[in-house]
Structures are given as C-alpha cells and as structure tokens.
Amino acid sequence: MSTEFPRVATLRTPEAFRAHLDKVGIRLGFDAELADPSSSPLARPLEVGGVRVGNRFCVLPMEGWDGTTEGEPSELTYRRWCNFGRSGAKLIWGGEAVSVRPDGRANPNQLLINGRTVKSIAALREALVGEHRRRFGANADGDLYVGLQLTHSGRYSRPHLKDKPEPLAAFAHPLLDRRFVGSVPQMSDDDLDQLVEDFVRAARLAHSAGYAFVDVKHCHGYLGHELLAARHRPGRYGGSLENRTRFMREIIDGIRAEVPGLGVVVRLSVFDTVPYRKNERGMGVPEASAAAGYDDAFGLVTNGDLDSGLDETRAVLRMLESKNVRWICVTAGSPYYNPHVQRPAMFPPADGYSPPEDPLRGVARQIEATAKLKADFPNLVFVGSAYSYLQEWLPHVAQYNVRRGMTDFVGLGRVTLSYPELPADVLAGVPLQRKLVCRTFSDCTTGPRLGLVSGCYPLDHHYAEHPDAETLREAKAVSRTAATK
Ligand SMILES: Cc1cc2nc3c(=O)[nH]c(=O)nc-3n(C[C@H](O)[C@H](O)[C@H](O)COP(=O)(O)O)c2cc1C
Fold first, then answer.
1. Which residue blocks in 377-466 are alpha helix, DSSP H?
2. DSSP assignment letter at 283
3. Chain segment 242-298, per-residue pLDDT in tens
C-alpha cells in the first residue's frame, strides 16, 4: 500500500483540501460550497448544433471484458449499461470500446460490431435508455445523448486468448516493442486503408442500432492514438502530422459521406509522456527522456511544459473543427505505459507501479489541459476526464470547472462502477454516499489484467460476490507475498 500521499478522504474540510494543494503546489480550483440544484452549473443543459444535453455529467466509456466470445454483451454488460442509464448523466460517451473487427479486440470478450452482433449492440442502448426513463420519467431521454465508441486495439490486441498478445502496431516503437515476446507486426498502408472502411461500416451499423454518434477513438495507446505518434513510419500514414492524421480524417470523411445523419466525435489522448516502468522498489520511473531523443509520442510533455505538449493537439483540433467535429473528450497517455497520467490512483493495478506523484497532480494536469484547449477552442464542446480520484471533492471541482467554463462536461469513469448514481445525487442536492465513493484500489484494472471481468470488487456487492472475486483476492495475496520476499 502506498502511504506517501495523504488520502483524499482525510482532507475533510475545504481548508484542509486547500492547505494540502497549496503545500504541494498543485493548481486545482474548487467551490467550497455546492450550489443549490436549481442553480447548479452542473444542472445546466447544453445545446449545440441541434443537440440538447440535459446536464453537465458524462459517463466515460468503461469496458468490462465481459462480452461473449462472439462479441455480444453479457448480463454483466447489460447491468453496467443500465447503471449508466440510471446515473443521471445526460451524455453517454460511447458506453465502452467496441472493436470494429475481430483482430482489433483487446481481449476475447471485448464487444465487436458486425452484422451478427448489431442487434444486441442496439439492445444495449435500448436497455440504457429504458433504465434512464424508468428512473427519471417517460420522456427523460429527450435530452440524453448516447453514442458508441469504435476502436481497433492495435498494439494491445488480444483477440483469441486473454494471455496471448497479437499486436498490430502502427510503427516500430523503440521501448514498447521490447515489452512483447518476439517481433511486433506493423499494419501496412493497405491494411490501414481497409481498416478505414471497417470503421465506416461499423459506424453505419451503429447508426442503424440507434446510436446518435460514434467516437472515433484516438486515445490510450490503441491504434488510432499510436498512429498520431508515428513520426518515424514511412508511407502515407506516417511522418508529417498531415500523414499521421490521415487515418482519422479518412474515417471521418467516410462516415460523413456514407452515414450523414450520424454524429462524429473524438476521444483523444491530448498529451503524453515517455513510457514509465516499475523500478526495483515498485515505483514508477520514466523509461526514456526527451532530452535523449525520445519523440515517439503525440503531444509529448517535456520538463512539465504542458502548453508546448499541446501544440500538436491544437493542430489536430483545428483540423477537426474544420470538419465540423465539435465534441472532444479529453484524456491523456495510456493505461499500459503511464497509468498514473491516464487514471490517477492511490493503489496501482497488478501491472502498474506505485504512483510517482501525488495522484491529485495527475487529476490537475488533465483539468489544466482541458481548460487550455477550451480557452483556445471556445466553439468546441469538451468533456474532461480523470475526476474519480477527487472522491469527496469531485462535485466541488466539477462545479468550479464548469462554472468557470474550463470544461463543458465532467466525465466520470471508475466512480461510475462503484457509485453509478453519483450524478443523480449531486443534481438532487443529496450528500454523497461515502461508502460508495471510488477509492482507486484499481481492482477494475487488475481484474482484466488477470483475465477476469472488470468491475468494482471492493464496493459493488455484485462483484464482491462474483466467482472472479476469489481469484482476484488470491492473485493479489500471492503478489503481496512475492513483493515482501
Ligand atoms: C475498467 C476500465 C475500463 C475502461 N474502459 C475504457 C474504454 O472502453 N474506453 C475508453 O476510452 N476508456 C476506458 N477507460 C478509461 C476511462 O474512461 C477514464 O478515462 C479513466 O478511468 C479516468 O477517469 P476516472 O478518473 O473517472 O476513472 C477505462 C478505465 C477503466 C478503469
């Protein structure tokens, strides 16, 4: 257990929270008092380009590694999506990553969209909307905006067996390739041309399944994101930023041409760092330095200079705005090589490392990046991520950020697994149920790393009682023993 940083739950008053932030020099604003629901910035609807979204909470995509091997949802998948529906959030950013074709599945239980599965992918949305109506009223879905996240897992594909990586990389990566046994195949330009068509076909199916938009996923080290970093890849999809964004542009153009009624949005890792690895003491340490020439990243932050790191992102956002893609979900880095950047946590997942910084710094970094981009692109709609670690202070930071126009929506990831109804409680002016607040134990990540389903094992009784819970407990006990030897 990491004890180096104070637990957020112990920072009980606004003064204590502020004093800690000031002491360690983390720039993070928050409202000491939550507004009355009738006047809360979080309750204000947003209307853009004919789309009305009823409040400022967004459920981020959260996959569960729990579909069938054919790529259809299981009972656990339905349960999670129903939880999204009863959360009270009015923006559902993609539900979870759905692979556009079999070789791009991150695990053999990832959802897959094709002619055979599309009915059940449609049923997932209907279940979510049905739950929303049951909880909030028969017409409550008029301002609910639900999309589907489309992906290809690229380097992180494991389509057949949970413990058998079958990477399809964007380029030869000097550090990440070493993490695989054997050679790492790269996708050819022809493969990528075909994949563009697969994304467009998947988008058409998503539209037919009733989704209002698709997210053309470009984050977390998966293929779309990795292509943005493919500076040293030869050919049409590498080198210049023009080439590195070709994949994204062609998918968007293809969807616009062939599925005109469908919204297109992008979830983007807007900045990145060098990959991190665990040192002998279990701490996260950088594996390279930009000073030594590392440049295999998109939006690389060097020496803490976030602003310069965002320059490439600004160029991509200008391109997206010119294509009338107006909805952007901000995230950063990757859960595989810099999880403390992507999902700040006190307790690392099985394949992670102890946090090299106060996790609040990771939260503040994503908030700052979102605010900078919102200031530069006022006509784009931004969703922020990485709020779960804020715990009791989440609503206070969320209200401050939305009130000050630093983001349009507050995205919720891990906390939706432990406490799906957090938005509904905040919007009703009800105090948070502290026993449901996500404490970032990372079991939702450790589970899948061990080939188990993802969920909140510590706080959601459904997972505490799931057969996988025992396997998880045993595996964690074994790794604790190994660590103390
Ligand atoms: C178990 C789990 C599943 C996730 N699944 C997805 C996914 O399918 N697509 C995606 O873009 N991000 C996914 N994420 C990342 C989250 O959407 C989010 O960016 C991250 O958890 C940080 O937000 P938080 O602090 O609210 O948890 C996942 C994260 C976790 C922990």
1. 394-403, 414-418, 422-427, 443-449, 461-464
2. B
3. 999 999 999 999 999 999 999 999 999 999 999 999 999 999 999 988 778 999 999
Q: What is the sign, positive or negative, of the torsion defined by CA atoms of 147, 150, 156, 157?
A: positive
Give the pLDDT confidence of 45-68 residue by residue, as tens digits.
999 999 999 999 999 999 999 999
Interacting residues of 446 by C-beta distance below 8 A, sequence separation 6+: 349, 350, 351, 472, 475, 476
Q: Can you give the length of the chain in residues? A: 485
Name the closest-CA residue to atom 4, ligand 1. Answer: 62
pTM summary value = 0.97
CA quadruple 125, 128, 134, 140: dihedral sign: negative
Ligand 1 pocket list (CB less than 6 A): 60-63, 96-97, 149, 217, 219-220, 267, 331, 343, 385-389, 412-415, 444-445, 454
Place of tokens 């998948």: 77
Cα(94)–Cα(123) distance, rounded to whole angstroms?
Answer: 14
The protein residue with its alpha carbon nearest to ligand 1, atom 21, reads 413
